[in-house]
Automatic annotation (TrEMBL):
Any Pfam family hit: FH2
Name by which UniProt lists this protein: Formin-like protein
Region annotated Disordered, chain positions: 297-329
Comp. bias (Basic and acidic residues): 297-311
Domain FH2 positions: 1-309
Source organism: Aegilops tauschii subsp. strangulata
Keyword Glycosyltransferase: no
Length: 329
């Protein structure tokens, strides 16, 4: 265990008492936390009256750690401090992504026109039935477009949609460019964000508790107390800002479901963005296949035209040639 600690333990403990994260990183601190002495081990060492040199390296290590009041608590505080800004930045980035994707979807006129075209096609297909005058459709219907085929089985409804848009509204074919944050949003789990927020809140509560206790430690924790007080003031301000952003992102996530006429409970944020991304990828694939088909048909038509031209030229040449066996007189 001690082999993994490269710097003198007194220096490490000094960094704990000064909350100095310039000479230790989070992994080192977490490693130390794992090997903090238990209450029983501390009691045994407190009652030891012999020479320190007679103890093993592990016991000497424990003695050094015991010079710091509530060493495990302070190590956990230092670990929290080291990771705090990165943790907050990661959560902020995800919350901003939620806000961004919700805004992009709501503000994309191209996506809106694609959805309107899908509704029109659906109503045309269902003409004469109760579903032939629908004013909307379920979000998961987007995933069924690739499964619905024409009677001749040659074209899916997704391919037909792409063909219609290419002919009538070619300017909306690149609607995916409006949704820059859609793919990153599919990697976000609201449950994970809630757990991260809870961890930050609990971490700040523990900082408050340790601050109150350290004030009574006397000179040994004087610097620790001062530095921790400064950190707590800044961290609480960050926490309040993050809580506000979290609340906004929660509303944005719900608004995304509402935008498609869905209930956020039945169709949560994760389902909305994953469905949209699947639709986008299937749409792009179908459009690319349509383009290849058009190109193949063009080449086929060109080859057919060239063959007809060659046939006509050969026939013309044959018609203008003298008959075999006939000579000039």
């Amino acid at each position: 265990m001690l082999r993994n600690i490269k710097m003198p333990l007194p220096d490490l403990m000094a960094s704990v008492l000064t909350l100095d994260d310039s000479i230790v990183d989070g992994d080192q601190v977490d490693y130390l936390i794992k090997f903090c002495p238990t209450k029983e081990e501390m009691e045994l060492l407190k009652s030891y009256t012999g020479s320190k040199e007679n103890l093993g390296k592990c016991e000497q290590f424990f003695l050094e750690m015991m010079k710091v009041p509530r060493v495990e608590s302070k190590l956990r505080i230092l670990s929290f401090k080291i990771k705090f800004l990165t943790q907050v930045a990661d959560v902020k980035n995800n919350l901003n992504t939620i806000n961004d994707v919700a805004e992009e979807v709501r503000n994309s006129d191209k996506l809106k026109r694609v959805m309107q075209t899908i509704l029109s096609l659906g109503n045309a297909l269902n003409q004469g039935t109760a579903r032939g005058s629908a004013v909307g459709f379920r979000l998961d219907s987007l995933l069924k477009l690739i499964d619905i085929r024409a009677r001749n089985n040659k074209m899916t409804l997704m391919h037909y949609l792409c063909k219609v848009l290419a002919g009538k509204l070619p300017e909306v074919l690149d609607f995916v460019k409006d949704l820059a944050h859609l793919e990153p949003a599919t990697k976000i789990q609201l449950k994970d964000l809630a757990e991260e927020m809870q961890a930050i809140t609990k971490g700040l509560e523990k900082v408050e508790q340790e601050l109150a206790t350290s004030e009574k430690d006397g000179p040994v924790s004087e610097t620790f107390y001062k530095k921790l007080k400064e950190f707590l003031a800044d961290a609480q301000a960050e926490g309040r800002s993050l809580a506000s952003l979290y609340s906004t992102a929660g509303k944005s996530a719900d608004s995304l479901a509402h935008y498609f006429g869905e209930d956020p409970v039945r169709c949560p944020f994760e389902q909305v963005v994953s469905t949209l991304l699947s639709f986008v990828k299937t749409f792009e694939r179908a459009h690319a296949e349509n383009l290849r088909q058009v190109e193949a048909e063009k080449k086929k038509a060109q080859m057919e035209a060239e063959r007809e031209k060659a046939k006509a030229a050969a026939a013309h040449k044959k018609a203008g040639s003298p008959e075999p066996g006939v000579s000039d007189r």
